Amino acid sequence: FFKDFPQVAQALAMGIYTDTHSLLAANERDRAAWGILMKYVKHNELKPFIDYPLSAQHFENLAYVLKNQRRDGAVMVASCGYMDLKDGDDLSTFADYLLRQNGVTEVYVWGIVGDKVRVSARSTNVSKPLDSHLRHIFGKFSGAKVSQDGRGEGGALMLLNLGDWSTPDTRDEVRALVTKFIESRVFARAPDNAG
């Protein structure tokens, strides 16, 4: 099959590569499937999907996140501020970066995309189910999964519904309000900190 449809093998190989964090969290079944697929995929065919150029906006967003973060113990919240829809996937990339910081076990990176607030969350704390935790602090449009290596990955989506109140002149106030809301939910109202 893959001999006649190498693009299917390529797509499946990329799925394994991304879902296993560049094969670092691959289990035996993942490695076996990877081995079979790579018989039909040339390594240079995957390179554009793995080692692709990043836009200048990606690095501007990263700089913003690094300047706009707050940490309380092992938990971190970082803001990407206002973002273009095409840059929304930066949130999960930045959450992955920040989770690697020494002593951090939970990360929430958020951005305002259109009339929505998107949150990307990561956790190494296996004692706290991220799925129910996200729904508790951000509502029903939240979800999570556990990666092969036991890391919680998930996110939330919240509508701003500000209508005419959201204008170029009120952007700073909206950003400050969202910051306060998310930080209060994560740091003060999370189940572990509830009084």
What labels would you give this structure?
6-stranded mixed β-sheet; globular; 6 strands; disordered C terminus
- Which whole number gives the mean pLDDT? 85
The outline comes out as globular
Cα-to-Cα separation, first versus last residue? 58 Å
From the alpha carbons, calculate the radius of gyration and give it in angstroms: 19 Å
Fraction of residues in helix: 40-55%
Structural class of the helices, strands and pairings? Answer: alpha+beta
Share in β-strands: 15-25%
Looking across the biggest beta sheet, what order are the strands in? 1-2-3-4-6-5
Low-confidence stretches: 189-195
Provide a brief overview of the structure.
By secondary structure, the chain is of the alpha+beta class.
What does this structure look like?
With 195 residues, this protein is an alpha+beta fold. It has helices at 6-19, 28-37, 43-50, 56-67, 90-99, 130-138, 171-188; strands at 69-72, 75-83, 106-113, 116-123, 142-146, 152-159. Mean pLDDT is 85; it is low at 189-195.
